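FAQ: What does a ligand-bound record look like?

Like this one, built around aspartic acid:
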Amino acid sequence: MAESIKGLKRTKRCAEFTEGDIGKEVVVMGWVERSRNKGSLIFTDVRDRSGLIQVVFDEATTDKAVFEKAKELKFEYVVAVRGVVQKRSDINEKLKTGTIEVIPSELRILSTSDVLPFPIEDEIPTREELRLEYRYLDLRRRPLQENLMLRSKVTVLTRKFLSDEGFIEIETPTFCKSTPEGARDYLVPSRVNPGCFYALPQSPQLYKQLLMVSGMDRYFQLARCYRDEDLRADRQPEFTQIDMELSFVDIEDVIDVNSRFLKYLFKEVLNYDLELPIQRMKWIDAMNDYGSDKPDTRFGLKLKDVTGVVKDCGFGVFTNAVQDGGVVKGLCVKGQAAMPRKKIDALVDYAKDYGAKGLAYLSIEEDGSFKSSFSKFMTEDELKNLVNAMGGEKGDLLLFAADKKKVVWAVLGALRLKLGEELGLIDEKKFNFLWVTEFPLFEFSEEENRLVAMHHPFTMVMDEDVDAFFKNPENCRAKAYDIVLNGNEIGGGSIRIHQPEIQERMFEVLGFTKEKAHEQFGFLLDAFKYGVPPHGGLAYGLDRVVMLMAHAKSIREVIAFPKTKDASCLMVKTPSVVDEKQLKELSIKVDIQKQGS
Ligand code: ASP
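The answer part, i.e. the structure of the complex:
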C-alpha cells in the first residue's frame, strides 16, 4: 500500500543538493527514474523537475527492511528517502549532482506505477498520438519541463517589463460578440437567451481599444484567443497572445517600447544581446526581395527581378507572362550548377505546389557555357544579359519563375526557404529580428470579390496616403507593422483609426452599409464619439515566441495540453457529444446523423 508522507518534509528539490550538503541528513522526494539492482548494491535515481540525485542502498550498511523495500522499486514509483549526503567515488560529470549521493536510512514508497505506455526519456521514438493521450507522462520529460519553465519565465518577465513601463494588466471578457470579419468564431450558446450565442475572442482587439477610450493609457494582457480555422501547419485553436495597447502614440512609439521589450526578454531569458535598433523593411521590399512578408534574413539568396531584361526575348514563357502584366524573377543559387536533374525536377514540383506552372533554369558550367531548359529560345546575347542581370558566375544555378507578381513571390519565396535549409545556408544560432512596415491597407479577396482589410478594419491609413484613401484606396499603405524573428511572424499590430470620418470611409471601402457597420461595431463607433485618444498596439503570439526561444520544432512543444490538427484533445477526449438534457436546456437541436444510422 502507498505510504504516507507523515512526519517527512522535503529538504529541497533533487538537483538542488550540492557538495555543501555533504554530511547533512536530508529528505529527498521524487520519481524513480531508474533503479539498478546489482545484488548487494541498489542504485536508484530519484527525479523531479529540477533533475535527479542518486540514492545508494548498500546491503552491508543499509537497514535490512529498507534494503528489502528498495528491491521493489520500479520505474516512476514516487518515493521519499531520508538519508545523509555523501561524496561520490565515481563522479558523473554529466549530472548536476554528479559528485554526491544519498545514503538512505529510511525509504517510503508514496505511490507505485503501472508499466508505462512509453519510457520517460528525453527523446522517445513514440507516436505523437500516444504521447498526447498520456500528455501528463510526456510532460515528465526533461525537454518539455524545460520548455514550460522557460515559458513561465517569459510571462513573468513580460509582466515585469510592461508594468515598469506603465502598462496595466486588465482582463477582458472571453464571452464576446461574434463579428464575421476575420477567422471563424467559436460560439458558446446562452441558456438564458435561447438561440443567442457568445463568441470566444479571436483577440481582445475591440475591448483594448475601448480601454483607451476609458483613459487606461497603456494596457496589456496575456490573453487567451480562439480561432476556428482549418489547422494547417503549426496552429492551435486556442493560443495565447501578449496583447497591448497604448494611447497618444504613433508607429515609432510602439516600435520603440517593443524593441526594448524584446531586448530585455532575450537578455534575461537567454542571455542573448539583441542589438538595437532592430532592422526595418518595408512590406514591398520584403515581398520583392524575399517573396515573403516575414522574411528570414539569416541568409541571402534574394529574388532578382529580370522582367525588363527578358521582356522582348524569344522565350514565350517569359514574354507572355510580361504581356499579361506579370513579372519574371529569379534566384541565383551559388555553386549549384551541378545539381542533378532529379533534384531540379523535385524543385519544379515543389514550385508547382505554390502555384507555378513550371520553373525555368540555367546552369553556368565551369567552362563558362550555359546549360538551360530554355537556351534554344534565346540568343547568346540575350542569355548573357540575363546571366549578368542575375549576377550569375561560373558554377551557379539560376532558377526563374514567370507569372503574376503574387504567384512569383509565393513560388520563389518558398523555394528560397527550401534551398536555404537544404543547402545549409541558415545559421541556426542566430536570432534575426526584423520590423516589417508599410503593409498594404487592403487586399483583394477573390472569394468575396471585394477589398478586405489586410490587418483589421480599425487600422489607420498612412498619413501620406490619406488623400488617396478617399479617392482610390486600393493601393493605400497602412500604419501596420509586424515583428518577425527568423522568418516567423511573432507579433503584429497597428495604429488605429480614431477619426470617425476615416472609420466611416473604411467601412464604406470594405463594403459595409452604415446599418451593418453599426449593427456589428456600434458600441465602438459610439464610444469614439466621447473623446478618443490616438492609440495603437500590438500582439505577440506567445506560443511562437517561446517556441523560437526554446529552439522547439512546434508550438505543441511549449503548450502544456495542446490539441491535434483536428482540434481535439486525445487525453481528455474532447470535443465530445453532450447529454440530450444539456442540449435541450440550451434549445439546441443537433442535425447530424449518428454513425451507422
Ligand atoms: N489584435 C491584433 C491581432 O490579433 C493585433 C493588434 O492589432 O494589436 O492580430
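Follow-up question: can I read anything off the structure? Yes, for example: Residues 203, 205, 492-494, 537-539 surround aspartic acid (CB under 6 Å).
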